[in-house]
Amino acid sequence: MFLVKLSLKNLMRHKKRTIITALIIAWAIFFYITFDSLLIGMNDMVFQNIIDYEYGHIQISNQTYWENKDELSLDNLITNDETINNKITEIDRYQNHAAQLNFQARLNDGVNETPVLGRGIRPEQTFDVLKYKDYIIKGEVFKMGEHKAIIGKRLSDIMNLDVGDYITLLTKTKNDTLNTIDAEISGVINTPNPNINQNLVFVPLDISQNALNLNNKVSHYIVRLDSQIFNQSIVNSFQKELGEINSNFGVYSWRNLDEVSITKAKQSGNVLILIIILTIAAIGIINIVILAALERMEEIGMMKALGLKEKEIVYTFVIESTGIGIIGGMFGIILGAISVYLFTKIGIDFGAFMDMDMTQYGIPIISKIYGGWNPKTFIYMFFFAVFGSMLASILPARWAAKKDPVKAIYRR
Amino acid sequence: MALLKLKAIKKIYSQEKIEVAALRGIDLEINEGEFSTVFGPSGSGKTTLLNLIGCLDKPTSGKIYFEGNYIANFSKKDLAKIRRKNIGFVFQSYNLIPVLTAYENVEFAINIVDDISKDEIKDRVLRMLSLVGLKGLEDRKPNELSGGQKQRVAIARALVKKPKLVLADEPSANLDSKTSEDILEIMMKMNKELNTTFLFSTHDPLVMKHAERKIEIKDGMITKDERGEKVNVFS
Asked: Which helix (H) or strand (E) holds A221?
């Protein structure tokens, strides 16, 4: 206990130095917590974007179709019948659902042609599951049976198309024969999700099914739940129930999407930042221990003369550094908490920095990014600060403790 | 019985390719309760001798016995054990810990010795500070004490664990003559009351005058070893 007392007194021996080192650690923690919070906020926004404008919470499709869903094959589709529609409504936390049919097409406006993703929808269903209503910036939504289409704003800009213009979608039917869908543009959509704006053409589901010779087939269902909190048990239990109807059906949460996996993988970049931050903090600690050891050389010699063991001398320095880590850690999490609080309440307005629509560059940001709370980060960072400081001090403390007592006492 | 016995002790320092012989064959016996001084010119080997006796350093050759135990080949850890329990040091520059009070500086030395209760530690520290004349100054930090008072703290620190041997390296070098006399008086008192063995290195004629045994060292060799009666000029 006496050595702990000595260490704590040494901690306050050079208050300014201790505070500056603690502030370096605090800054590092503050920076990491803030960065992590913004990253969480951005991820949440991206995930919300995916849920609200592209996938819903859950998708149901044929398992084989899902595995190769990017190929937009017209094989392995699902028959859109009452049995499955009724079954879907039984999902725990169910809110609404919509059947969709994705297909490959080439959009031709009579002059130019570009590959697009065609999507047959029941507008009243899809617009309930996905939040498109507020983003029809021109025209209106079509009705079932109408030869009309809604296109994304980016696509309309590229092709110079507007409401009232006619387009032709060149497609291949299930039997590999060519067919076309002629449609008048009834609306232009500009969502926060750049994928929707860039290359998607919505047409009525029945029109697309007829054109593709698919009768009542759809590629998948999208389902909205009344909570965005991911619950794998809902997916698992519905997968089981659905398996009783057709074992080929698969139930997929938005969490299973490739885009989500990639976003999560990007978070590993945090580790690099963490390493940089910890290195800065460690250098601060090593520096302070070496300085302290050089200043206290005669005291170290005296301690050795008194019979203190090397490990006891190391212990005094390690406790002192751990104290700095605790002070820095506490400052850091307080500053971090203030910063995260401000970012979650006020957010950061990227629109103010960049006076342009970032969605056209594939960045799903409309105006503000809000931070997110992650209590684990606070706990981890505090312990990183404490244990990092402790570990960083061991080597310089051992160097000091190993000093020859005679050389230390007489400063030779 | 000899507390300490040195036989043919040599200490050679190597600095790059140059070898400097600090001690060149020392034979010495120090008995329990002696009040002795080692004197000689600067560079004669006094401090080196004290460091070897104090288990702070190891000889290049020769044998050292502490309480009959051969310690020249002891490990650093074992030497630290001997210092912890049996040897007290008083340095010329006091070497007090500035963040600790006078009480805590003395407490530090006894705290690291095993098997002493908190109450006994408190009693011994307060008694020792009182013996060296620092009663009432226990809570002062070194920067609030004079040079003499600091050296008194250092003496109390050296004696509080009741060591068998106290080594003092020029303890009066930084003190005026009056303070030196006071310090010497305290050490003589301790020697008498506690039967602690004292060994000084000094240039100070006052210290030499009152030492029971005077060991002169020149060029790393003992040139004179005189024993006489303890002279107490303070009585």
From this structure: strand A220-225
